[in-house]
Write the structure tokens for this entry.
Amino acid sequence: MVVVVVEQARTIELLWQPLPRSPARILPSRQLSSYSVSSDRSHYGRVIHPLALMKLFIDVELSPDEIPSATELFRILRALTDHVKTRDVGKLFQTLILRLEDGSQLDRVSKEIATLLTDPSEMMLEEFQAAFVAVVFNHELVLRQQSVVPFMFLLPRLPDQAKSRMREFLIPKVLKHLTVRRPVEASRMEFFAHAEAFATLVNLEFVPMNGAVTTIITLLRKPETRCAAVTMLGKTVELCLQQLTEKCDPSILQDLNTALQKVTEDAFQYDINYIEESMGWCPPLIGIGDSHDSPSSGSLSVLGDANTGMVMDSSSVSPGMLRKWQHQI
């Protein structure tokens, strides 16, 4: 771990290491004893003169494996100055988020990301948002038929401020992608990850159930958003079936059933059978095997070519609806 302290045009490079009998200590990488910072049990967190009198800008270079032991370091450095920056933090966030492919890493990764997010700066939060989107909506995941759900489960474990900001950031981003105008037989690979992310946000109660179902109904009624809507509904049924049946207003569920009955395109028949059977609305019209047979619940059904001439259309999900959702949460 390397700490670079810049005071005006002067640069001091320090190496940091935790010591067994002291919370933290910074050691100069060359003979600069007058610029050392130490902490021990008798004066924990105390900063030694003359560093306290300088205007400092501090860069911290961390590897992912060093994050668990960096908490005390950050406390000491922020006692020196508000200008503490972690180098290449975007790449660091991506490395940590990618570890969530192994679900058993969730506890560790969430704690390490929380350590980095103790930096309250807007820049740090924006770096995390960009890293999260880069990992979760990487097209390679879709090509490998890899679920985004393990990554989404990080969100409830974020510090409160970061969790709230991620919800405000992620919901409009996901919906904007899902409300793009597409042909009925569009390739689902274009938006499958976003549909699954939407369903996971519902599962995590980041999106209220009634608002989510009302949005799906609206999108089902328009041919240009129907393909995404059917996929959203299939994933929501898969991930949130109990919540749907227990928490959604019965009148809204009835509206959903009615809207679904008006979807008659052959491209969606398999999805509709899966949804109706899961919801108990009617017997399946054709034989359905286990959940892996359904394009909504697991495997990807690539229906037609991607529409390269897409136009963004956010009218289906208005800012007013987003504000209503946020008020309900």
Summary: The radius of gyration is 25 Å. Residues 88-136 form one domain. Residues 174 and 198 are 7 Å apart (CA to CA). Residues 223-247 form the longest helix (25 residues).
